[in-house]
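Attaching the record inline, Q. Sequence:
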Amino acid sequence: MRLTIRLLYVVINNTWAIGLFKFIQLLKKMAHCVTLVQLSISCDHLIDKDIGSKSDPLCVLLQDMGGGNWAELGRTERVRNCSSPEFSKTLQLEYHFETVQKLRFGIYDIDNKTPELGDDDFLGGAECSLGQIVSSQILTLPLMLKPGKPAGRGTITVSAQELKDSRVVTLEMAARNLDKKDFLGKSDPFLEFFSQSDGKWHLAYRSEVVKNNLNPTWKRFSVPLQHFCGGDPNTPIQVRCSDYDSDGSHDLIGTFHTNLAQLQAVPAEFECIHPEKQRKKKSYRNSGIICVKICQVETEYSFLDYVMGGCQINFTVGVDFTGSNGDPSSPDSLHYLSPTGVNEYLTALWSVGSVVQDYDSDKLFPAFGFGAQVPPDWQVSHEFALNFNPSNPYCAGIQGIVDAYRQVLPQVRLYGPTNFAPIINHVASNTSCCCC
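Structure, as predicted:
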């Protein structure tokens, strides 16, 4: 049995096609041995930009693409009202030993919901190479507002971890009878998971806040197993339950220690203990019960896992024959066949099709046209076979599609409107989940 994916490719213009071609080329490069690493980021002594409170920092990671261009690779979450944040969201990128990969970290004080950073205060940045981080394991750099101008005593610490393990742990947690921490309401509880390595506790995950609830159920979440516990089910894990305060002075409700093996023994329950209350009150039992509703370890399969496991990509082509393409006899038309026998549509077909056809065993591709008047009655059709054989619209390989296109072009009249819904419906109605 083999899994099948169906891909509809509508040739609209060459620019779009080349972009898709580059994307597929990137997928092909994944077949080579490339190491994926994840970066954990924390900061200390950030400057304060907010009046009456600390900053709300977020870290942005960029990579030097050459020619003075930088591309954003990812962002951490925003940590409210904190000058020494430890970001729970890790950032992933590929590590190439033979390449100097220059990285730039930017820390911003986020005070609005827009993704643009131009209206947010810059708290400092640092540059280094991925090789420096990997070779150092833990790298601490001073934050700079601009060259030669430090951002106060601010620093950024980055550590790298190779992602060899493709497994993820999925958890769903709940609690009951948590301590009431707010004077005018209940508690606003959230969870933090810390794993222990090298004698230190490292933040692995921070949950969302459940407002005004002493019996919360948190959203199900997934974390890479290696980040959660180093891949070892016996690695010590500390779980902290706290009451969220907007000023960052979160109140500890309680904590407990466990490991992945114990978490997997669902349904599992743990007493949430506040150390100070336990020490002062002889009658103290706990500050609530934390319940593990789901704890599953699963393999997260990559694109290559599917391809190497027998996944097929069925490629369907739809060609736009509407009048907006211009007269095929004019050099300005996308359908113009130059003296070399090539035009924008053929270039697009070759660019994408030559890559995709490698993932289909029989290399028989259905090809259609839309938006043209077709013989013999010259009615407008939005789903006609390029080979004029509606009972068998399959073409042998990309060369077969090209040949059919060249033969049909002088036989149809470009018309309109642009409507490729019938071809999409055709592909959807013929999609099967698997075939034997």
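Residues 167-299 form a domain with the Immunoglobulin-like fold (CATH 2.60.40.150). Residues 1-5, 12-23, 26-33, 432-436 have pLDDT under 50 and may be disordered.

More tomorrow.
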